TrEMBL record:
It comes from Pontibacter arcticus. It is found in: Cytoplasm. This is Translation initiation factor IF-3. Residues 7-74 form the Translation initiation factor 3 N-terminal domain. The lineage of its organism: Bacteria, Pseudomonadati, Bacteroidota, Cytophagia, Cytophagales. SUPFAM superfamilies: Translation initiation factor IF3, C-terminal domain, Translation initiation factor IF3, N-terminal domain. Belongs to the IF-3 family. GO terms for biological process: ribosome disassembly.
Length: 173
């Protein structure tokens, strides 16, 4: 695996801007900056290769790599995982079933989940596409106070999908 940063002898620039702790900041010849790093038993690491001249830092490279890995691990841990809950309808879904699924959908949205509701057409029920679309739009309308539509009803194969995301709670006045 290729290293993301150039270190010590791998730095090809003639001059570098040196930054870091316990070094005199400024522009140096690369070999002079390398000597300064060696005197402190540290590494010369090219932090910003696109700058003119490239920016280098005198640090312990293995410790620096460890810190970078630690930061990325923390970022991944803090990243929210989007959970999508699915709610299935048939084209002839009854009012009671609709209300029951609506109640579940509200609790999912209030918990911060996305909802992928779909009408599954089995056999010849595919001729009732408009019933499915009306059902999904009625579903979205019933949830408009707690959700916003991310994707309008769309037919893919034997299923018509509607994707809803929770609305961010508006600050109360």
């Amino acid at each position: 695996m290729e290293e993301p940063y150039k270190v010590n002898d791998k730095i090809t620039a003639r001059e570098v801007r040196l930054v870091g702790d316990n070094v005199e900041q400024g522009v140096y010849q690369t070999r002079d900056a390398q000597k300064m790093a060696n005197e402190q038993n540290l590494d010369l690491v090219e932090i910003s290769p696109t700058a003119v001249p490239p920016v280098c830092r005198v640090i312990d490279y293995s410790k620096f790599k460890y810190e970078q890995k630690k930061k990325t691990r923390e970022m991944k841990a803090k990243a929210q995982k989007v959970v999508i809950k699915e709610i299935r309808f048939g084209p002839n879904t009854d009012d009671h079933d609709f209300e029951f699924k609506l109640k579940h959908a509200k609790s999912f949205l209030e918990s911060g989940f996305k909802i992928k509701s779909y009408v599954h057409f089995v056999g010849r029920t595919i001729v009732f596409k408009e019933r499915g679309e009306i059902l999904l739009l009625k579903f979205a309308q019933a949830l408009e106070d707690v959700a916003k539509v991310e994707q309008l009803p769309k037919l893919e194969g034997k299923r018509m999908f509607l994707i809803l995301t929770p609305k961010v709670a508006a600050p109360k006045k």
